[in-house]
Amino acid sequence: MDDASKTSRGRRLTIDPITRLEGHGRIEIFLDDAGSVEHAYLQIPELRGFEVFCQGRPAEDMPHLTSRICGVCPTAHHMAATKALDDLFGVQPTDTARRIRELVYNAFMFEDHALHLYVLGGPDFIVGPQAPAAERNILGVIGRVGVEVGRQVIAMRRRVRELIAYFGGKVIHPVFGLPGGVSKGLQPTDLPRFQQLAQDARDFALFTNQVFHDLVLARSDYVQLITSDAYTHRTYYMGMVDARDRVSFYDGQIRVVDPSGAEFAKFPAQRYREFIAEHVEPWSYMKFCYLQPLGWQGFKDGPGSGVYAVAPLARLNAAAGMSTPLAQQAADEYFNRLGGRPVHHTLANHWARVVELIQAAETMAALLADPQITGTDLRRLPSQNPTAGIGAVEAPRGTLIHHYETDERGLVRMANLIVATQNNAARIALSVEKAAKGVIKQGEVSEGLLNMVEMAFRAYDPCFGCATHSLPGHLPLKVTLYNRQRQVIRQIVQE
Amino acid sequence: MTKVPPRVLVLGLGNDALSDDAVGLHVAREVRDRLEDRPVVAVVESVGTGLTLLDEIVGCDRLVLIDAVQTGTVAPGTVCEWSLDAEPARRIAAPHSVGIFETIALGQRFGLHLPVQVEIVTVEVEDAATLNFGLTPSVQAAVNVAASRVVRLVKRWLENHPPVEPADAPLRGG
Questions:
Q1: Angle, nearest 10°, between helix axes A325-337 and A191-212?
Q2: Per-position DSSP letters for A407-472, written without gaps between them
Q3: With an 8 Å Cβ cutoff, are B91 and A475 in contact?
Q4: Residues with Cβ within 8 Å of residue B160, at least 6 apart in sequence
Q5: Cβ separation of B130 and A154 shorter than 8 Å?
Q6: Which of A53, A173, A470 to mutate to test the interface with B (most CBs of B within 10 A)?
Q7: Is residue B126 less than 8 Å (CB to CB) from chain A?
Q8: pLDDT tens digit string along A2-11?
Q9: Which DSSP symbol is given to B5?
Q10: May I ask the CATH architecture of the domain B8-168?
Q11: ipTM surpassing 0.85, yes or no?
Q12: How is chain A split into domains, by residue range?
């Protein structure tokens, strides 16, 4: 970034952080005349036509259609859509089907979290926030953890994807969930190899925990960064919990805690509209979710503001504990080290993700040890005429809700999604602005500083929802300078 | 014995539900029709990105990628060819977690057999953000043009690289 360190006053900066992000997005930073940050926004490109795309289609198509809109977390959409169909047709999956869904879903969470830890977030922490841009990538991560570990990451990911494909046919566009069940069961002859996989996945998760301790937590400067004020917001937190209020990815009630960690609400997904409302800003097509009972109070934190977070940090905060023993141990250490519940440090998302990685692996192992998993009763047939259905899961990036309304023939009239990044949008905006204010002074903008701002939202692992493969016509990092009239003054390009 | 992989892989990328983003898939289908008598050529359509593509490209000697591009500087439907050698990877990195070029570099670090030559045929898109099955007319019209470019690249390479005995061919998995 040759021009990046030049002073720019009274300008608008745009960071276009293509690298390591799913889809396209950019950060816009507005500087005042003194060169300080006035406002900072995360802009996400619009994916158009979802309503029209869905209208008139048979509801049974929704798991396949919605998994297509996003190449990042197709399994999450597929599962949320499948659960919405359960609700729409008034039918619950059989015991075996439920376990298979949970198995596939936890495998997906495991794979996605592993990818984020090593590939997306790894460059920030494993390589280091101040490392040269040329090293802050997957190759830099491999340089730190070693080629053999890199091979393990790739091999483990491939094996877990094979499990998902065993049931779903295709990982990217699974064909698996049916209202009231699943399309394929687990053959007893295939059980041993998947049990071995789950055991290896657990070992891998524990190994990752060790890597995180050795390369991140052992460094006081990283820990200081994680707990620094620039990356801290005292907000509400949302996440799905099981009957004992423990973290649950596949099913449960949605629980919200306040900034002190006390329960604020707990509700089934079907009541989401009583608790989640959406705020519109003129500068963004995206709607910002907030807690309906508190109202929209602007982009601010604190107990009076309806801004909340989802994703790993929020899930751990919103639950009373983890559902598996080794994950619980890891969570205990996490909360002890970071000052108790709830943890308000955005960058702790990476550590929380490690804790969840362990739970996902342990859950896979537990499900595969259950004799029901090879049962043959895979589906209950729908029992009611469709009108409306709502389903939710915890996607890797946070709570995901699908809501469909149909006519009496089951053709979709209305489809609404609340996606994880939307839940997080207001808090991400807070994080970006605060980080920008913390690191940009007197208009001094350098590559290292911009990376500190990017880190603020990368911790959320925001998904920009579109699986577009279009090669960008511009370069990985673009900073556009605008004057107060929003005219482009010049563009800075990072190579 | 492990299946001998194709020496030339034609890989079309895209999301079939996202309007013109699917153009790489459409071109790949057309290429498959035209090259079906060439057993050393595999034509694959993929919605995958980044690391997911590693399994696809391991073992081939030559990779021709087909993808959508949105530069905004040329008319929709414009077909371009890029060479990985001529153009540094970062300049055309895919917008996802790990681009195809980082994926290749990563695989090489692991000692996997990966293509020594990568060429990319791109089609400038008009709309890759609307959920819809189907291409816009100008991009639809470019499918044949792009397919011809891909076929020409493949045939030229095969002429310069006569077949080897299967035993000498690299094994998948490297």
A1: 10
A2: -TT-BEEEEEEE-HHHHHHHHHHHHHHHHHHHH--TT---HHHHHHHHHHHHTT--B------PEE
A3: yes
A4: none
A5: no
A6: A470
A7: no
A8: 333 333 344 4
A9: P
A10: 3-Layer(aba) Sandwich (3.40)
A11: no
A12: 12-48+440-494
